[in-house]
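Case study.
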Amino acid sequence: MDASEAVTRFNEYLKSHKHKLTKQRILITEVFFDPSKRAEHPTVEELYLRVKERDSNVGHATIYRTLKLLVDAGLALPNRIGEDLTRYEPEVPGEHHDHMICHGCGLIVEFEDEDIERLQEEIAHRLGFNLLDHSMNLIGEPLQPCARQDCLRGAH
Amino acid sequence: MDASEAVTRFNEYLKSHKHKLTKQRILITEVFFDPSKRAEHPTVEELYLRVKERDSNVGHATIYRTLKLLVDAGLALPNRIGEDLTRYEPEVPGEHHDHMICHGCGLIVEFEDEDIERLQEEIAHRLGFNLLDHSMNLIGEPLQPCARQDCLRGAH
DNA sequence: CTATATGCAAAACGTTTGCATCCCT
DNA sequence: AGGGATGCAAACGTTTTGCATATAG
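After joint prediction, the assembly is written out as follows.
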C-alpha cells in the first residue's frame, strides 16, 4: 500500500467518524507510509522530526493525535517490541506479519509464515479460545555479518 | 519455583554481585513469587500496593530498583503485552512460555509448545539468524463463558 | 457558518536519580 | 566500620489535555 492509498483509506475512516482530512493529517500519513522508510517502525519523535522537515509548524500533539486516529482506522499498530519506547508500524488491513529482530542493532525483518499461523489457531482452540490476533517477535543474532554499521554483533 | 526458592536464587545473584539481601528485597521477592498470584504479571504499582500491605514504609523507588535486579538475576521478565504499562512476569530460569490472553478480561494463560519453538528456530535460520529469544502473545475470545466476572465476553 | 483540528504550554503520568540516612555483612 | 540500600522528593521523558485560534466541510 503506497502513501496515497493510505491517505485515501484514512479519509474514508475520517469521513465516517465526522473527522476532517486536514493538511497535517495528509502530511503525517504520507510520511508514515513513505515506502523508502518501510519497516522502520518509527517512534513518535522520529515521525515528528520527519514531518517537521516538510512543515515546521506541526506540533507534537498533532502527531500523537493523528497516530491515535491511524490506529483506530486500522492503519497503524503500536508496538513495544523492546523495553523502551512505543514504535508505530504502518498496517495494511488484512495483512499480518511477525518480526525477526536483530539483537545487535534492532533491525526488524518482517515475515509471514502459514505454519505458525495454523499452529497458533490450533493452540488457541486447545486452550479454549477463538484466536483474534497475535504478535510474535523473534530475537536473534545474524549468521552473516549484519549490513548495519551500528550492529553490535561481534563487539562483545 | 516457590517464594523461598526464589529468594535463595536471588540471594545467590546478589552475593555474586556485591549486593545485599535486605528485608525489603526479601519481602518484594516473596510477594512477587506468591503462588496464589501466579501468572498475574503485576505492574509496578500493583506490586507496590501488595508489598505495602506487609510493610507500609517501602517506597516506590525500592520496587523499581529491586525489580530491575530481579530482571538482571533472570527471575523477572518485563512484559509490555498490551499497549499500556510495563508488567513483570516471574521467571523460572531455563523455562519459557508464551501467552494466551483473553480479549475480554486480560486473563493470561501461559503455555508451552514444542512445535512452535521448533518452527521459530527454523524461521530464524531461514532469515539468517540464530534464535536467541522470542515472545509470542495470542489474543482470543473464550469459547466457553470466562470465569472472571469482569470479562467483557458477550457484552458487545 | 459551525464543528472540528491545531499549536502551544501546562499538566499528568511512569520511571529514574540525588542525597541524607540507615542497615547488612 | 563501611559500602551498599533505603525513602523521600525532585527531575526526567513521554504522552495527554485545556484553551484560544485557525480551518475544513
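Observations recorded in class. Residues 20-23, 44-45, 60-61, 64-65, 85-86 of chain A lie near DNA strand D (CB under 10 Å from a C1'). The beta strands of chain A are 76-79, 87-90, 98-102, 108-111, 129-142. We will return to this complex in the next lecture.
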